[in-house]
Automatic annotation (TrEMBL):
Keywords: Membrane, Transmembrane, Transmembrane helix. The keyword Membrane applies. InterPro entries: F-box_dom, F-box_Sdz-33. The chain crosses the membrane at residues 12-32. Residues 46-85 form the F-box domain. Coiled coil: none annotated. Residues 234-291 form the Sdz-33 F-box domain. PANTHER family: F-BOX ASSOCIATED DOMAIN-CONTAINING PROTEIN-RELATED, F-BOX-CONTAINING HYPOTHETICAL PROTEIN C.ELEGANS. This is Uncharacterized protein. It holds the Pfam family FBA_2. The lineage of its organism: Eukaryota, Metazoa, Ecdysozoa, Nematoda, Chromadorea. It comes from Caenorhabditis nigoni.
Amino acid sequence: MLWPLLCRTFIIIVIFRRIFWLLGVIYDFLILRKTPPEVKKPRFPFLKLHYVAIREVLKALDPLDHVNFSKASKSCRRLSTIRKPYTVKLTFANRPLITFCNGPIEYVVKWTVFREKDGNRVFWKQYSVDNLYKYSENSLDAVNELKEYHLYVKSLMSVEIDTVEWQMSYFNGLCRKDVDWLRANAPEFPALSVLGTNQRQEDLEYILDNLKFTKSLKINVNVIEPRPLRIPDTLEELRISYGSWITLDYIMSLKMRRLAFRGTYLTNQDINVFFKSWLEMKSHHDLERFETNLTNREDFIAIGLRDIPYRMGSMRHLPGWSYISVQGSFEVTRNDGLTASVCTYLCVSGFTVIMYTRLSDLNQ
């Protein structure tokens, strides 16, 4: 009994000594690649160590160092193909980004027009963001490099796209080939956010019609001649910032759990019809949150809540500075007993009203 125990203890000690040794080797590797040649130490034969031990140490690297290590040599490239899961956000813009999202720290690769920043890493402690800068002479090259970088990372790790952000203003109508590339390399992903000013409706529609996003869509695009958009009703969340074309009939046709609109011409009478429809269980049975701008705050209570029984509740404060609560909540009850809080806020764009049917949303 004693001999097997001693053997196992000896093996464990050897394994831990090797792991700590390898951690020191990785540290030396990361330091030496930034050290001038005249002061570098002799190279350690890292790749001659046991395969399993090497892979265990590589798993401890953050994604940015993992990619850098894989590019050191062909042997490093072969060792680096671990299936470590990461979710990423791709930002298509004149200075594109790829963000590794999971974990307490976000790791971001940023393309920059400043040559002196190339290769620099900057940690933003207050945001827990670790930035790596890459130089590119122009935005077109930068977007192509973003696509190449994503494909390379995808070949190393189990990378899945969680969110795509598209900043249309920087593409001047040249983004369709990039949309086609994304559709080919990411058949579907959970969330899409589109931004832009003075854009053509057909360009926005091309993005929406040719990408498959399964959960969330946020549209912050000011189009030249706005028209109603074709949006999948299978989504969970829809946010539209420039909603001059949105009507009550359009909202009543939607089935999302979370709806938010800005810049609409909806009247308090329209809002009253929507609230009553929900209270009487005629529509939006699974609604969690509804938000829209107020075109007339003064008569919101008289018209927006007309013939709706309510009791006053406490103020519902939202985190951050974007929403400032202006009065207590109006607590209403649906026919099946489900309660909701109707709250008014002051935002940068004016007054808005939000109906929460799940108070957990207040912390999101």
